Amino acid sequence: MQTTPFTPDEQQRIVDAIRQAEKATSGEIRVHVEPHCASADPVQRAIEVFDRLGMHQTKDRNGVLFYLAHTDRKFAILGDSGIDAKVPANFWETTKDLLRSHFAAGQYVEGLSRGIERAGQQLKQYFPYASDDTNELTDDISFE
């Protein structure tokens, strides 16, 4: 059974943020939500989820995963090698800070939406949309 801290409307807002962010890029953004982090380190768990979701299979290695273990209050942002090599050195950390500030105020949907928008801007800059692009990964939130 899937558990989610989000109402159907909130889930739709997150999916809409993903679709908006992906409009101008060949990059792919996913959000994965689960109650508990199966690893002591949320980054390690995000790596496992990234692999399981097949995010490393994008043509340009430009997938970005937002991982959230809501009950444990842990999260991570993981970019594949293609996008990680292009963004500024502190990009992931400053994006985590943005999410953390919203999460601390209980604004999970707003935090995720802002982080997704920020990742989309970087993806657009380094991996602009081309006419032959296809949506390689679903935009739906994955739950465990």
TrEMBL record:
Signal peptide: none annotated. Coiled coil: none annotated. Residues 6-121 form the TPM domain. It holds the Pfam family TPM_phosphatase. It comes from the Bacteria. This is TLP18.3, Psb32 and MOLO-1 founding protein of phosphatase.
